[in-house]
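Q: What structure does this chain adopt?
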Amino acid sequence: MNRLVLLLITITGASFLAGCGDAEVIVHALQTGAAEEGSEPTPIKDLQVRLLPYDRDVIFDSLAAAYPVPQPEIPDTLLKLRDAMAQAHAEWNETEHRWATVRDSLQTLSKTMQGMSRASAEYRVLYRDFQQLEPLEAELSKRKDAAFARFTALQSEVVKLSDEIRLKREAWEDEAYAPVDKIILERLKKLGRPELADTTQATGTARLKAKPGKWWVTARYDLPYEELYWNIPVELKRGESLEIRLTRENAEVRPKL
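A:
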């Protein structure tokens, strides 16, 4: 596994926690990058955040390095197919939205004209608008159906190839990472510190209190075609509060199979 590049770790200063010598980690999980430029980040709620007294990446990396066969890679052909599928899905959604807007306008015009005198000037204006929109609705309907057909065809290819690669990678992981639970248990006993966890609230915030020392903040966030993964080391000092932002910018972005 690739080691995570660390960014956006902010220490709030000497903010002492009352009543104990523990430290506190305040995690803010925010979704960024997918929205339009200039828009505010949105909180990620219901995200499980774990605070580990060991570096899980080091354990998994060492097991992978020790295994005699490398993990099957995700081929570029699959990644390109996934990108094409995502683009086709976006095009389908955009076309469907445009078609629905025009269709709704036609329905509104049709209802408005009902009961009106066809000889009236207002009716003639509305009818002219209706005639202009009707061929546009038909054209957008064709585009929508074609975009959906492209998306489903690509999706079928992606699912088939993804299943094949995922099964191979999972079989490799079952073998290569077989000792991981035992290794982690021994590491926890040696360190004398447990794993901690919390779930982000509607504000995207989770709070964890822990003994001073070296810890790792770990979380995973699923997106439609990829996963955001964080494994951020922090040094906790007695009585201090540490704030961390989990965003796309400081995550490892992994393709999902």
